[in-house]
Amino acid sequence: MIFAQVMLIGLLLDVAMGWPSALFRRLSHPVVWIGALISALEVRLNKGGARWRLATGTLTVALVLLVSVLPAVLVTLVLGKGWAALLVLGVLAWPLIAVRSMYDHVAAVRDPLAAGDLRGARHALSMIVGRDPSTLDGAGISRAALESLAENTSDGIVAPLVWGVVAGLPGIVAYKAINTMDSMIGHRNDRYEHFGKAAARLDDLVNLVPARLTSLIFALASGVLRRSFQVVFQDAARHRSPNAGWPEAALAGGLGVRLSGPRIYGDRVAQEPWVNEGAADPEARDISRGLALYVRAMFLCGAVLVGLAIL
What does pTM read for this prediction? Predict the structure, then answer.
């Protein structure tokens, strides 16, 4: 399990330092580099009819994966084996694991909300969700923050670690490229419905196992395993996403609050089903409880990596 050792090094570096602003100013971030490539290809290729856009979107997925993963494969081959190689690969995996930034972004929503500053909480929330939070009340802000915590724990931490353990640096790079493509072009609207379809479907596929694994981790970390699993079995499959409902339901059950539900997108109201319907709406203190559960879940992830690394 050499790859588990690499992921453990990356995880520990992220927990200790996050991605320092000084490094960001000098080097930016690998996801930003991937995003720039996606944007450049999208501007040039997202044209024409539906069938053409589907073809060029699929080509974009292939090109982004090739450009992103090939350097990771070459670096891995050049470094070879040994502790020095493990350390370098762990450092390279470090920016692709978002444990610390996830906590910080959600805490940035909780703090102004707890102080009664809805405007500040909405602004902080806009940094981590794609929809407009300007109409959300305190309960809506709390739900959105916890939903983001659940989904991004799967997408930003568990899934990268899973694919990193499976395929090393190329695996974690490939996953981040796929997930970034989905977040940028995998939308169901006039512009991306066809061009982003391949990216969205591939993202659904690579998140199937990590999303369900995240629900298990949340349930174990919650201390109320039965209640958490009950909500998962009841509501996960009813969610609008084939994957996001699993960690979201486990977190909702673990905290004893309801999530998801009707929401506003632009000028329309989407009648999404509730997750853990009948439970209370969350408040700022429930975001704190969610973050505490998240910390315990990250300790479980670390423990699993240690076990695999020892093997």
Answer: 0.95
Nearest-angstrom CA–CA distance, 106 and 104: 6
Distance set, CA 39 to CA 54, 228, 275 (Å): 16, 39, 34
Q: Is the pLDDT of residue 35 over 80?
A: yes
Core vs surface per residue 236-247: b (16+ CB within 10 A) or e: beebeeebbbbb
Q: Report residue 244 as tokens.
A: 């996001």
- The model's pLDDT over 80-100, given as tens digits with 9 standing for 90+, comes to 989 999 999 999 999 999 999
Compute the mean pLDDT over every residue in the chain, rounded to the nearest whole number.
95
- The domain ranges of the chain are 2-310
pLDDT at 263 over 90: no
